Amino acid sequence: MLVRVRVNGADREADTWPGSSLLSFLRDDLHLLGTKNACEQGECGSCSVWLDGEVVCACLVLAAQADGRNVRTIEALGDEASPGPVQRAFVDAGAVQCGFCTPGLIVAVTDLLQRERDPSDETIRETLAGNLCRCTGYQKILDAVHLAARRAGETSP
Ligand code: FES
Ligand code: FES
């Protein structure tokens, strides 16, 4: 079936299997590989994207459900040559090890910092409860969120 989605501000379409998840559509059909596939069961958060402004697990959404809607992925936030502020904070705080969880975390943290300028540890932990990381032990992720929040506070009025 033909699915048309606005992805990171561009109209994209592809012929996909009717049972395809949004995650498969992004990765396999549109070749946007930043969104990671780890569990495919909604358990790990590595596939987090925005769908009409709300963070969802792309593995739990059918591509057909996203037809005609707006999707924003990690690719919208920066790249290796020009990382976004949350990406930079993760690197600077040493919160990236294998990196598999990182795109989903960056999406979730970016969404959080859009709503709260200076979230507490408790709020960060609650917000990121659905994002699993097997490497870092989470403290460096908390450090990265605080670093990104502090830098945003220094540059905004
Ligand atoms: S791959 Fe979607 S939540 Fe794990
Ligand atoms: S850095 Fe490896 S799973 Fe998080």
Question: Which secondary structure elements does this structure contain, and how are they paired or packed?
Answer:
Blueprint: E1 2-7, E2 10-15, H1 22-29, E3 48-51, E4 54-57, E5 70-72, H2 85-92, H3 102-115, H4 121-127, H5 139-155
Parallel strand pairs: 1-5
Antiparallel strand pairs: 1-2, 3-4, 3-5
The structure holds FE2/S2 (inorganic) cluster (2 copies).
Write structural notes for this entry.
With 157 residues, the protein is of the alpha+beta class. It is built from five helices and five strands. The protein has a five-stranded mixed sheet with strand order 2-1-5-3-4, with helices on both faces. Strand 3 and strand 4 form a beta hairpin. Helix 2 packs across helix 5. The longest helix is centred in the C-terminal third of the chain and has 17 residues. The chain starts with a strand and ends with a helix. The relative contact order is 0.15. One FE2/S2 (inorganic) cluster (FES) binds next to loops.
Distance between the termini: 48 Å
Shape: globular
Radius of gyration: 16 Å
User: What is the helical fraction, as a range of percent?
Assistant: 25-40%
Summarize model confidence as the mean pLDDT: 97
Beta content comes to: 5-15%
Main β-sheet description: 5 strands, mixed
Query: How many strands?
Result: 5
Low-confidence stretches: none
